[in-house]
Design a protein that fits this description.
The chain folds into two domains: 30 residues; 103 residues, Lipocalin (Beta Barrel). It contains two helices and ten strands. A hairpin with a 4-residue loop joins strand 9 and strand 10. The longest helix is centred in the first third of the chain and has 21 residues. It is globular.
Length: 145
């Protein structure tokens, strides 16, 4: 069919078909949000509640396929169990070493563990950060290491 013999309705259908195809192709090529899974690498905590971490300190965690999360911090190592159901997550009581450390670091680790025990939901921010959220809105923010 020559272009001059196409009707406006046919041109509209062709335009819609092309637009739909382009939209589908764009969606198929869009990579997932970075960090879209808990497992598969280390998460480095950036914030606990609304506080940044103490200078030159760290809290790291690694989620395993076996339902265990292993962590390390400036002073102590720790582990706990976790269970995911959709966007819901629950952490079970775990274990931690009890090394002596500076008061600010001990307080930071305590705040982290208290909040972790209250986390009930997780999600990924648009920038790929992991947000572990308690029901009252307090959160732990972490990023892939």
């Amino acid at each position: 069919m020559e272009a001059s013999s196409r009707t406006p309705a046919a041109m509209t259908r062709i335009s819609l078909l092309i637009a739909s195809s382009l939209a589908l192709a764009a969606c198929a090529g869009t990579p997932p949000v970075p960090g879209g899974t808990l497992e598969g690498g280390e998460w480095l905590v950036e914030r606990v509640e609304d506080r940044s971490l103490v200078d030159r300190s760290f809290i790291a965690m690694r989620f395993g396929a076996d339902g265990r999360v292993l962590g390390r911090a400036a002073c102590n190592g720790w582990s706990a169990g976790y269970k995911v159901d959709g966007d819901r997550i629950a952490f079970t009581a775990g274990a931690a070493t009890l090394k002596a450390c500076a008061a600010a670091l001990g307080e930071q680790e305590g705040r982290f563990h208290r909040l972790l025990s209250q986390v009930s939901r997780y999600r990924f921010a648009d920038d790929g950060a992991l947000l572990l959220e308690a029901a009252d809105g307090r959160a732990i923010r972490a990023r892939r290491g």
